[in-house]
UniProtKB/TrEMBL annotation:
Any one GO MF annotation of this record: fatty-acyl-CoA binding
Superkingdom assignment: Eukaryota
Record's keyword terms, sorted: Lipid-binding
Organism of provenance: Periophthalmus magnuspinnatus
Family the entry assigns: Belongs to the ACBP family.
GO aspect biological process, one term: fatty acid metabolic process
ACB domain: residues covered: 2-79
Protein name in UniProt: ACB domain-containing protein
Length: 79
């Protein structure tokens, strides 16, 4: 089903032919967290926790969106 396809795609993204840039990685992280956990449910980290803050921002940017897997290469974002 869709869950198995999503998990397969999540594994495939780990072995991409070209390394995504920082913005793409951040966006992928946000999409992954939103698809697997849903809306962010943790407080923002402190301002000196740079990596944690970037991850939090990426996930928070996807808040309220419902993500449905279309196939292993794309998904639908519902606002």
């Amino acid at each position: 089903g869709s869950n198995e396809a999503f998990l397969k795609a999540a594994e495939e993204v780990k072995v991409l032919k070209q390394t995504p840039n920082r913005q793409e990685i951040s966006s992928l992280y946000g999409l992954y967290k939103q698809a697997t956990v849903g809306d962010i449910d943790i407080d923002a980290p402190g301002m000196f926790s740079f990596v944690a803050k970037e991850k939090w921002n990426a996930w928070n940017a996807k808040k309220g969106r419902r993500i449905l897997l279309k196939n292993k290469h794309s998904c639908y974002l519902h606002y």
